[in-house]
Amino acid sequence: MLQRFENSWDIRLIDLEKATRVRSATSAMISDLSQLDRHTDDMSNRDRQDFWDAYFEDTELEARESALLKISRRTADRLVKQYLGDRRMLNKT
């Protein structure tokens, strides 16, 4: 989590060092960023863009685009499933 205060930042990182599954660096990056995206709904778009700029600092624009599109698809899929589940619950009552 990344949160800006008046003169400081609160940063909380996800440590997946003890994960047992072996993944490619790209797969791990997509998974980590997707997880971060799922848990930072309150992060402003500007803060998210600043984070991505820092995270992808040494990455070509095409690779950034590919990663962010995968993340956005995962987020969109999650939101659609949540929306449909909510609608189904409303229809049952």
Report the portion of residues in β strands.
Answer: 5-15%
- One letter per element, helices H and strands E, the order comes to EEHHH
Radius of gyration: 16 Å
Tally of discrete structural domains: 1
N- to C-terminal distance:
36 Å
Number of helices: 3
Poorly predicted regions are none
* Structural category: mainly alpha
Helix content: 55-70%
Strand order of the largest sheet: 1-2
The dominant shape is: globular
Rounded mean pLDDT score: 80
What is the number of E strands? 2
* Biggest β-sheet strands, sense, barrel: 2 strands, antiparallel
Q: What's the topology here?
A:
Layout: E1 2-4, E2 9-11, H1 25-38, H2 45-55, H3 61-92
Antiparallel strand pairs: 1-2
Helix pairs in contact: 1-3
What does this structure look like?
The structure is a single chain. With about 90 residues, the protein is mainly alpha-helical. It has one domain (about 1-90). Helices cover about 60% and strands about 5% of the residues. The protein has helices spanning about 25-40, 45-55, 60-90, and strands at about 1-5, 10. The chain has a two-stranded antiparallel sheet. A hairpin with a 4-residue loop joins strand 1 (about 1-5) and strand 2. The radius of gyration is 16 Å and the shape is globular. The model has no long low-confidence stretch (mean pLDDT about 80).
